[in-house]
Amino acid sequence: MGTISLKNINKSFGSTEVLKQLSLDIQDGEFLTLVGPSGCGKSTLLKIIAGLEQQNSGDVIIDDKNVNSTRASKRDLAMVFQSYALYPHLTVRKNLETPLKLRDYSFVERLPLIGNFVPSRKEKKKSIDDLVFKTSETLKITELLDRKPGQLSGGQRQRAALGRAMVREPVAFLMDEPLSNLDAALRVHMRSELSELHNSLKTTFIYVTHDQAEALTMSTRMAVMIDGELLQLDTPSEVYNNPSSLRVAEFVGSPKINTFAAQIGSDGSVEFMGIKLERKFNTNSQKALVAVRPEHLEITKDSNKPAFEATVSYRENLGSDIFYHVQVDQSDSKIIVRGSPQVGLISNGETVRISPSHAEAMLFETSGERIR
Amino acid sequence: MLARHYIGESWKHGLLIIGALIVLIPFYMMVSMSLKSQQEIQSISGGLVGAQEIQTFPVCTKHGYTEEVCTMRPYKYNFWFAFKKAPIPRYLMNGLIVTISIFLIQVLIALPCSYALAKLRFKGREFVFSMVLFCLLIPVHAIALPLYVMLAKAGLVDTYAALIIPWTISVFGIFLMRQFFMTVPDELIDAARMDGMGEYSIVWKVMLPVAIPALLAFAIFSVVAHWNDYFWPRIVITGNRDLFTPPLGIREFRGGIDSDEFGPMMASIVTVTIPLIVAFIVAQKRFVEGITMTGMK
Fold this sequence. Notes:
The complex is a heterodimer. Chain A is α+β, with helices and mostly antiparallel strands. Chain A folds into 2 domains: 4-249, Rossmann fold (3-Layer(aba) Sandwich), CATH 3.40.50; 255-371, CATH 2.40.50.140. Chain A contains 9 helices and 21 strands. In chain A, strands 6-7-8-3-9-10 form a 6-stranded mixed β-sheet, with helices on both faces. Chain A has a 6-stranded antiparallel β-sheet with strand order 13-12-11-14-20-21. In chain A, strands 15-19-16-17-18 form a 5-stranded antiparallel β-sheet, with no helix packed on it. Chain A is elongated, with a radius of gyration of 26 Å. The two termini of chain A are 37 Å apart. Chain B is built from 15 helices and 2 strands. The radius of gyration of chain B is 25 Å and the shape is globular. In chain B, helix 4 (74-85) packs across helix 15 (262-291). Chain B folds into 2 domains: 2-85, no CATH class; 88-252, Orthogonal Bundle (MetI-like fold). A two-stranded antiparallel sheet of chain B has the order 1-2. Chain B is mainly alpha-helical. Helices cover 71% and strands 1% of the residues of chain B. The A-B interface holds A 47, 50, 52, 72-74, 77-79, 81-83, 85-90, 98-99, 102-103, 148-150, 164, 176 and B 185, 187-188, 190-197, 206, 209-210, 212, 294-297.
């Protein structure tokens, strides 16, 4: 079992409020990502769950037990850190053994020399050795067991750190940006490995990241946090396609979503950039913001389609995709449009007609709430 | 171009060589004098090792040894007589006991202190640390008298305790280790806490092994300072020759009927200096390794 729920967590350092009345329910076996820009309090939240940091108010409940006053080591959670935090003076094997020895051995059994003579230790040592071996097999680090962390590459250290967390078979894994010290190719590779690991372990994963690509690819649900508040908790596709507020829409998705000022007619019709949306919205506001993702803007040559004109100022070629940064002619705002293969390459300075996909345009209040 | 480059370089090297000579010449003198006979020392002749002629030494016979025993080569005589005249092995052992005890207790106290000052959050931490910095400014000689009075009242004068106790809390050690611990990532400590270590286990099982290079640097400061210390042992060891540390022991050779016999005196100094030089050469590699330690990240 590994359900974790947070109830009205508040945390401040001095006068700066880091977490504000945050509540969150994490289900057993879930891969939950806490994602948000740096400084949004996600790492602090993870430390509060781990018990490394004490909340000012609110409850942390693990498997229906309130653990507010339980020490970090007694919460049966394991954590993987950004800098791996392996003990630099111990071999990988010893690193993996340490949490088990501390948990399973009694005080006497842990003593150097004397501990060897306690009969019960032998049996425990055997089970520890088995667990370490099993874990190292799963992670393919068996041949690295006798090396020290300093002799390992980044990816190998990452695995060793994972191993140290896994040996304890905890109720949940807490991961604090574990991939951000790896190079880009390895990071993408480790993403899929982590997902596979989650599938085979079926343990709760709580994963903190500022990288929305990691959140979108790996998680079963993602929690978007901005400024110490939980803004949306949903599946990655729902968060991407159906953000609850403009802040979520702007944070998730790369390149960033485009916004346009829009006027709302008395009948609920929405008009922006001289284009009238086919859908009607139920709102009393007169002004609103229309947000359209770059892939839902089309560069068109069809003069019958409703469109606005813009000048290409910069072409960003990512290989699989081409994004055009364009200057809208009527205003001074810049937007980003994904190029389509039918249109072909467009050079800088060319004027293009841009037509939005009506079904995908989202409407937000000027204050940021979603209008549905 | 190339020639000018060499001239520029040799200029620097020349200066450095002069500096090195200033440091090395006393050592050269010490070694040379410990090998030569009294006549050669006084006439400043004989180069490094002297002629090494077999001769009978008058000071030796004055001490009641037979002429046969006192006839040998100067280098042998100098060392032999130094060990005969004073219990040098005893002094060396005293020096070892005192410096090692001081260093171990200093570490025992400094590590938890500096860990708390660097990594634990508590009220008044900054104040405590500023007091540590303040204590760095107090010279030993300023508090020597009150310290002596306290030790005398406690009846500890002329004991090992008097040599050790005043140095057990090293503010310099606390400061040095605190600065080092500041560079240890918090995540390592958090990881140890998640694994189930208590704060004391963290200090001894995580911070201590990580801090070995810094401790080695501190060990050099501490051991050299207390091995060579003359001032404090001179104050608290008043009569008992069995407690003399090496620097006090060397003083034995000064004064008395054969005060001008430099050979055995220098031989004793060489004997006292060698352990430190050997220790430094052995530790040097780890010391340099320590400075360039990059195993953390």
